[in-house]
Structure formats: C-alpha cells, structure tokens
Write a structure and sequence with these properties.
Layout lengths: L1 E3 L2 E3 L4 H7 L3 H9 L3 H6 L16 E5 L7 H11 L7 E6 L9 H10 L4 E6 L6 E2 L12 E6 L1 E3 L12 E5 L2 E2 L2 H9 L6 E6 L8 E5 L5 E6 L13 E5 L5 E6 L4 E4 L8 E6 L2 E2 L1 H7 L4 E6 L2 E5 L1
Parallel strand pairs: 3-4, 4-5, 5-7, 6-8, 7-9, 8-10, 9-11, 11-13, 12-14, 13-15, 14-16, 15-17, 16-18, 17-19
Antiparallel strand pairs: 1-2, 19-20
C-alpha cells in the first residue's frame, strides 16, 4: 500500500484511479467501444462517471435478453442523453418488449440532434409502428435501416438529401405510394437492400426507381405454390446508374428492367421465373452474370 499525500492508494485500485483522471474526450472514446446499456451503467461507478455517458455521440441498444423492461431503460437513457450531436442510434427491441414504448420520441430526438445513422429493429409481437414525419425529412441522415414491425408510412412530401444507404428489412408499407415517395426523396441514394416478409407487406407491385442507385439487393422468400394467380405482382427496376444487383425471388414475380440500364457490371440471380424481354436485353450488357439453378451455380462472363 502506498501513500500519496493524505490519500492511501491500494495497488489494486491504481488502474481505476488513473482511468478516472483521463479527460472527458478520452473517456468518451472508451465508452463508444462499450455496448450501450453497459455504457449507461457506468453512471453508478462514481461521481466522475455519472454524466460522462450522456455526451456519447453514438448509442446502441440491443436487447440480448429480450427483457420486458428494456424499452423503459432506453426511454430513460434517451431522456437523460445530452450530447448536442448524435452521430448514430441503433435500437433492437426483442419480442417481449411492450409495444407501447414510445419509439417515435426516440427517433424525433435523434433527428433533432442531427443523426447520421439510424438503425431500428422492432422484433416485438405487436402491430407495426409508424415513425414520425421528421424521420423522412432529416437532412443529415446518411444511413437508414428499418427492420420488422415498422410501418413505412410516407403520406406526405419527404426529403432525405444526404441518404446514401437504405435497408428495408421485412417491414410493412402503407401502400405503393409510400415506397415511391421514400425512394424519390433520396436523390443521392447509392445502395438499397430490400427483404420482403413471407406473410405479406401490403404491396403487390414493387417498383425501384432511383436514378442514382448503384447497388440493389432484393430478397423475396415464400412458398410459390400458395400464391394465387391474382396475387402475383411485379418487380420493376428503373435505375440507370445501377452496376450491381442481386435478386432472390421465390414467389414468381414478374421482373422488368428498363432499357436505360447500361451500366450493369455484376448480376446475381437465384430465381426469376417471369422475366420480360427488356430484362433479358439489359443483362446482355453485364460483365458477369451468376445464375443459381437448383443446387448448382452457373457463371456467365
């Protein structure tokens, strides 16, 4: 045991004291590497740590234990958070989380703090939840990922001038117009990842019309035998700058590409049973085409 002035230091605690002596910006860099709920929990370590986490520019909350109280924990954390700039917010709520937690309020706060990356996965069993209008008019948003029990409702003019990356993973859409408004509001969108839910997402026809899009991944899983003729919709891709796209479609949708898509470089197709003539002509400009037939893959260059 050593003595420093009037303070007695136990060797086992010297490391802790040295960390507490670090400036706030270094402590924040440490907390950024810690899971969100653990970063918030550091508030109980000492008076020195009580408010540090509140200035974190990145927050990530993932419900690994699917706790019923996790939504309340996030709500309190968001209320106490005071950083003027929130670079990213990642939230994953499990199936046991009550569906009445106010996720809209969290999104609003993130937008008001100039969020750049927003990633929400609502895995609960409640009805799909719509997000506030502010999300679809956020000028700073660069990356947006929406997953599961989220209702994409864009019934108003939208504007996402900075959005480069968009993931729509098993969400539900209010209607085809909502999808069209969302995509048309993103003039610089580069990458789009779409996964459509087996049980339906309110859309029969899915149209991707994005002049700036360079990469598209489209996944539609399900049982083709259960689809009736009048339920078979279409997939239309109108993206003249597109260079890479992948299609995984089990349900027999009619797939169409516009003839202005002359930049195709690499194409992956697992199953497209109803391609039209334009679709086949567009593929002729691709440098590499990968076709999966049953259990084998055929590569055409």
């Amino acid at each position: 045991m050593e003595t420093m002035g009037l303070v007695r230091i136990v060797p086992e605690t010297q490391g802790c004291l040295r960390i507490c002596d670090l400036p706030d910006d270094l402590l924040l860099r440490i907390l950024i590497l810690v899971p969100g709920k653990d970063a918030v929990a550091t508030a109980i370590l000492s008076k020195r740590w009580r408010y540090i986490w509140q200035m974190l520019p990145k927050l990530a909350f993932k419900d690994d234990r699917y706790s019923e109280s996790f939504g309340w924990f996030i709500d309190k954390s968001m209320q106490l958070h005071k950083a003027p700039l929130l670079i990213s917010l990642v939230v994953e709520l499990g199936e046991h989380c009550p569906a009445d937690v106010d996720v809209r309020k969290w999104v609003d706060k993130a937008v008001n703090h100039s969020v750049r990356t927003l990633d929400f996965a609502l895995l609960w069993t409640g009805e799909p939840t719509s997000f506030p209008k502010s999300l679809y008019t956020c000028g700073t948003l660069v990356s947006l990922s929406l997953s599961n029990q989220i209702l994409v409702d864009v019934s108003f003019p939208a504007s996402l001038p900075s959005l480069l990356y968009l993931d729509l993973l098993n969400v539900v859409y209010k209607d085809e117009d909502s999808l069209a408004r969302l995509l048309s509001s993103s003039p610089v969108l580069r990458e789009l990842d779409v996964q459509r839910r087996d049980e339906g997402d309110n859309l029969k026809n899915f149209t991707v019309k994005v002049p700036s899009l360079e990469l598209l991944i489209y996944v539609r899983r399900g049982d083709q035998q259960e689809q009736e003729e009048d339920q078979i919709g279409s997939l239309v891709i109108d993206c003249p700058a597109l260079t890479d796209f992948s299609i995984y479609d089990d349900l027999g949708y009619y797939c169409s590409l516009t003839e202005n898509m002359l930049c195709l470089d690499e194409v992956y197709i697992s199953y497209v049973p109803n391609p039209d003539g334009k679709f086949l002509r567009c593929l002729s400009s691709a440098r590499c085409i990968r076709l999966y037939l049953s259990e084998s893959m055929v590569t055409v260059t």
